[in-house]
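Minutes, project check-in
Item: structure for the 140-residue chain
Input as provided by the requester:
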Amino acid sequence: MTGTNRPAWATVRVDEERYRPLYARLLGLRFVNPGGVLCFLFFEGAIALAVLLALAELVSWWAVLVLPVVVAVMVKLNDMVAAIVVRSAALVPEQERDRFRRQMEPVVGRARVEWVSHSVPGVVIAADPVPPPRRANPSD
């Protein structure tokens, strides 16, 4: 792959492309960047699982070929969804992102309670429980 056809917002740089695992390079992953162990589990692990399922006669032997392909399709689909999310996030103006961050900022310990605004620090305010209202007629 050359660097001319890759978008500027891709997470893997062109000079690091050759050091990526073969599985990630064959799928053309741009946003999902699995390491060597994860690529091993995606491909060889799927084959091993399919062989075990076929030996247990839970699936036919076609699963040995189909399961790694299905896993690869799901990984590529996940990469495509990540690309869509990154593109849509890039379209949000910086002003809107700042406004959203201010609105979603957690405010812990700043709740105002009006009825204790006259209290003195260190003084515990206690109230007696209110008895339940009595009915006028006991037959009700």
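Outcome recorded: Residues 63-91 form the longest helix (29 residues).
No further action items on this chain.
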